[in-house]
Design brief:
Elements: H1 2-19, E1 24-34, E2 42-52, H2 60-126, H3 132-167
Helix pairs in contact: 1-2, 2-3
């Protein structure tokens, strides 16, 4: 908002510099009445117009106008740069949140798969068809998958917080 205010102020300065080159007109007028008799009014009117124009100012007004235009161009470039950076930040934050959501979804499915693998390995072990090392490996696999799922969950929370910041409001979590 500050960059936009600077841009508007710079544009107003350009307009002010342009108007300073124009002639200045002033109008005035008055109405008087005088009479010694309360029923007899003697009216007197005065009206006039004054025009003022600086024919030659030593190129001062040209320089002021050029400076105002230069400052306006600088403010416009700053505003556009900030605007482009905000758009880039928003797009990156959206992409990162979407990517984190997909990783979280994969992690949740991986946990379900690891739980099922542990259930099957446990049944095989109880029936004597699997060794203890297979059961332990399945348990380690589930623990590793849950750890990765927790990391994916926190990555998603960080990505949505960054998106909320970029949007300037809370982000609705996808279902």
């Amino acid at each position: 908002l500050g960059a936009l205010a600077q841009l508007k102020a710079a544009d107003m300065n350009v307009q002010r510099a342009r108007r300073s080159r124009l002639p200045k007109l002033q109008a005035f007028g008055s109405l008087d009445w005088d009479s010694e008799d309360a029923g007899n009014f003697e009216d007197s009117y005065l009206a006039g117009v004054v025009a003022e124009w600086d024919a030659f100012t030593g190129f001062r007004k040209d320089a002021e106008s050029a400076e105002a235009k230069s400052r306006a161009a600088e403010a416009r470039a700053g505003y556009e740069s900030l605007r482009n950076q905000l758009i880039l930040d928003l797009r990156n934050a959206h992409f990162n949140a979407q990517e984190a959501w997909e990783r979280l979804d994969v992690a949740r499915r991986s946990v379900a798969s690891a739980e099922e693998a542990l259930r099957i390995t446990r049944q095989r072990y109880e029936q004597g068809a699997a060794e203890i090392t297979e059961l332990l490996n399945a348990q380690v696999g589930l623990t590793t998958t849950r750890t990765r799922s927790a990391a994916a969950h926190y990555d998603y929370r960080i990505a949505t917080a960054n998106l909320e910041r970029a949007l300037g409001r809370p982000f609705a979590e996808p279902q």
